[in-house]
Amino acid sequence: LSLALYTGSLCVASSAAFLYHDYCVIGAGPSGLQAAYFLQQAGRDYVVFERSHAPGSFFALYPRHRKLISINKQYTGKCNSEFNLRHDWNSLLSHDHRLLFRHYSRDFFPNADAMVHYLEDFASLLKLQVQYNTAIIHVTLEKDEQAWNGHYFLLTDQDRHNYKCSSLLVATGMWVPNVVNFPGSEYVEGYETVSINPEDFAGQTVLILGRGNSAFETAENILGVTNFIHMVSRSRVRLSWATHYVGDLRAINNGLLDTYQLKSLDGLLEGDLEDLAIVKDKKGKLHITLRFYLENRNTSAGIDSITLPQDELDNFATRAPYDRVIRCLGWKFDFSIYNRSLRLMPGKGNKKKYPQIKPSYESRGTRGLFILGTASHSVDFRKSAGGFIHGFRYTTRAVHRLLENRHHGVPWPSTVYPITQLTNSIIKRVNEASGLYQMFSVLADIILLRENATAFEYLEEYPVGVLAELEMQTGRKAPNGLFVVIMEYGRNFSGADKDVFYYNRAVGEAQHAWQSNFLHPVIYYYKHLPTEREMKLRPPDWPLPRPDAVHHIVEDFLTDWTAPNAHILPLRRFLENCLSTDLRNFFAESCFFFAFTRQKLPPFCRQGYVGMQGLVGSEGLRRHAVEAGLLEDYTARDFSGDRTPDSHDGSQNQLLRDHAIPVRPLQHLVNAKDE
């Protein structure tokens, strides 16, 4: 008995050593706070661990020159808050309108200090459960069949406090500097420590390693005081306006391109940084050479004994010595704190700085481990905005919805409408939805058709990469076919080598909508939910497998897809062809006429007129419809029999007065024409 009691006390002590939460979130940056908001709104048991004393510690240091490149558009000419988020790249999603970033800065490109203030308020005003000054230094697994995912996550902080959770959300971002080691790399200064005072560079010659926004941001800061600046990278410069990828070089930082192309001493070079070497002369000047020149030499032996490229090629591009070399190579994910049991592996190729994850943002190696925020960008790297606030605020919400269905039996939010509202619903979403707009080609609206296409179920902003798993991931069924509404750029329009300003770059006619180049809505129709195999075999650069039918809504200069003839009518006819039905809206008189002349009424008449719904009749409305050509003027017809046109007109007016039909909201009538 004593032994049993002793053993039991050990188990209790061991259990008490771990503080348990259903959800653990590592990192209180933007994605961590966004995840915390959704968990708190759902009433879940969670905690956020933040190593610093305040949220958003990354923005307290970076960007070094303090100007963000995420736009903060104050005015759009519209009051629709969902639409305005299309042009607000800094706000997180919440119900509190005080927490819109425009209340924290009026600058189009805000100062990073405003972001720090914003994130502090977001955490405090919403009372999010953030545990500050807690650096998680080790994460491992504990197998347990009773756990949600067959195991628990065990976390240890810097003070050796232990935590246990059923689901782990990693929102640490990318903060480990990318470093290239080569002979002489000890002479290189890092972006994270280099001086930001332009006067420290006065009269100096500078070489910058890298070609991203941090490299050009650094160059922009010292452009006016240096002798000249050279920039070296393995790849050519990629301009965001050509690639349509916001992570590429933005116009706000590209002053060096002007001085290079206008021959004002500065320049860009391409080369593999691992092939370089740097040697320092007696005057402290830094000389660029190639690694193979140093293979059998000691760099400390002195520059006079080392062969330089200009000794063999006297016009070698980097023959002039430099005063400083600055490394601006971006960041990578910190894998060091994760035990091998989690099997959290780096990606391959240009995605090796990111952890490997599925299109559902779950780790490929461990169930229940999700990557959020910038570190999840491998799903849409160089394609969409998933690595930035205006993108991952939506993917974080998608992950939350997946978790709600998996662990709590809460299906993906949806709304059921009668089939007559199909055109309206699509038009409304493509004109205002911010998630579709920002996460183009990644998130899509899913329309699940009910039996006999009498109604449909609308799901918003679902990750298309896991479309084949829709029924399992959402708790919704798709037995009768579906439409997928997504935003896309033209197939061959984006690229570093593309001229996106060529003449006739835009399409204006509906019949040529499939050739649209700029961002525009595309509707895919599937008679059956695509399979995993079909997803894997989809054409290159297609977000979805080949559909049974596809429709492009022609691009619009104002991104306003409400033109009756160019946008709405072609969409409606596409939907009608897919469903073999008539989706037009009709006045009650037309429905009355169809009831006597057709065997099958259009859905609008079946669900509206026959269901005692429609517009209130009046002589003014009838006259307006006749003048507009929407109704036939029966009063002008020659009726046979005893009843005269006048008596018909009188009886009709009496009918309109005595048997008015209840009002159906006008906004449901997108197109009231009968043609």
TrEMBL record:
GO biological process entries: ERAD pathway
GO molecular function: flavin adenine dinucleotide binding; monooxygenase activity
Keyword Oxidoreductase: yes
InterPro entries per record: Auxin_biosynth/cation_transpt, FAD/NAD-bd_sf
Record's keyword terms, sorted: Endoplasmic reticulum, FAD, Flavoprotein, Glycoprotein, Oxidoreductase, Signal
Cofactor field: FAD
Residue stretches of biased makeup (Basic and acidic residues): 637-649
UniProt region (Disordered), positions on chain: 637-656
Keyword Oxidoreductase listed: yes
GO CC annotation: endoplasmic reticulum lumen
Superkingdom field: Eukaryota
Family: Belongs to the FOXRED2 family.
Function according to Swiss-Prot or TrEMBL: Probable flavoprotein which may function in endoplasmic reticulum associated degradation (ERAD). May bind non-native proteins in the endoplasmic reticulum and target them to the ubiquitination machinery for subsequent degradation.
Subunit structure: Interacts with SEL1L. May interact with OS9 and DNAJC10. Interacts with TXNDC16.
Name of protein: FAD-dependent oxidoreductase domain-containing protein 2
